[in-house]
Design a protein that fits this description.
The protein is of the alpha+beta class. The protein folds into two domains: about 5-45; about 85-165, no CATH class. It is built from three helices and nine strands, in the order βββαααββββββ. The strands form three sheets. The chain has a three-stranded antiparallel beta sheet with strand order 1-2-3, with no helix packed on it. The protein has a three-stranded mixed beta sheet with strand order 5-4-9, with no helix packed on it. Strands 6-7-8 form a three-stranded antiparallel beta sheet, with no helix packed on it. β1 and β2 (about 10-15) form a beta hairpin. The longest helix is centred in the first third of the chain and has 43 residues, at about 25-65. The N and C termini lie far apart (about 85 Å).
């Protein structure tokens, strides 16, 4: 088979006869142009991301930490697990706002015997024995304003507590 040299879109053999490209060669040329274009576009987007990642991540964290987004996430998780959800956003926010204040664990020292006091919402987390969390009173009923309790370290926070965290201990450092 004669060797071919590429001249634009036509091929010429070394024997000076014109040879047209095969269908497979044309398809490969088109695909390589599209692949090259795609790779350049990916590289451009990656450069843009690296140049703006700090700002974008800061914005993403701010949105994720918003109360509205946290309410939507709680509702979404409940629905995904097949639990009913009858809380409105206002009721859900009110439930967290009415929860008693909590002393941050480990914040009591000799110089600050009361410790750092924060709203229960500030210590929210998924671990029931380490964080504050909302639980249903009756697991067979949907989440609602009549079927919840706020827990901290496995104990229910009751509205008559001004601060929850147990008696002050001056032995902590």
């Amino acid at each position: 088979m004669p060797r071919r040299a590429t001249l634009g879109f036509r091929y010429a053999s070394l024997d000076d006869e014109m040879m047209l490209p095969t269908e497979q060669e044309l398809t490969h040329a088109v695909e390589s142009v599209e692949t090259s274009r795609h790779e350049k576009e990916k590289a451009r987007k990656l450069r843009w991301w690296h140049n703006h990642a700090k700002r974008l991540n800061k914005e993403r964290r701010a949105v994720a930490c918003s109360i509205e987004n946290r309410y939507k996430a709680a509702e979404r998780r409940a629905r995904q697990r097949g639990w009913g959800w009858e809380f409105t956003q206002e009721e859900w926010e009110r439930a967290w706002m009415e929860a008693p204040l909590v002393i941050v664990p480990g914040s009591r020292t000799r110089s600050n015997p009361e410790g750092v006091v924060v709203p229960a919402y500030a210590l929210r987390g998924s671990h029931a024995l380490k964080n504050t969390c909302m639980q249903r009173l009756d697991p067979n009923k949907p989440w609602s304003k009549d079927n919840y309790k706020i827990m901290f370290r496995g104990k229910e926070l009751t509205p008559n507590h001004q601060f929850y965290g147990g008696p002050p201990s001056l032995d902590e450092n």
